[in-house]
Amino acid sequence: MSGWPVVLSDASSSCDLEQHLRDGSLRGFVWFGQGSGWEQRASTSVMPSLQRIADIVASPDLPRVPTIAVICMQYGAKVAAEALQEKGIQQVMWLEAETFDEKTLCQMVWQIANALRALNAAGATAIDDISKLLQGSG
Fold it and tell me: What is the pLDDT of residue 137?
């Protein structure tokens, strides 16, 4: 089975996530950040925030709502994931870590990649299977 596009945003630099959402060209996205509202910004930069992403997802004019989002944050990942799910994203996975050091990030990326592969594979769509992969036990 072929893969599908996923946008990776670290919430600290400008990206095309908002435009991809408005275009309906995403099936999913992965968000890394310190916490909702903690996004780093220069005074002249307009960068994506989870609140803006949620507002776009809730828009009645959106051609297609992403089917999956993965939220990886130091603070408030579960609350952010619940907010996105309330706006219409069917499956929202969340990971929270006390620190975002290199080792932790590598582990998270590995777990996310495995979970997305499983989700994309035929017959591996049960959320329990995906949760096991995210927890590193799959």
Answer: 45
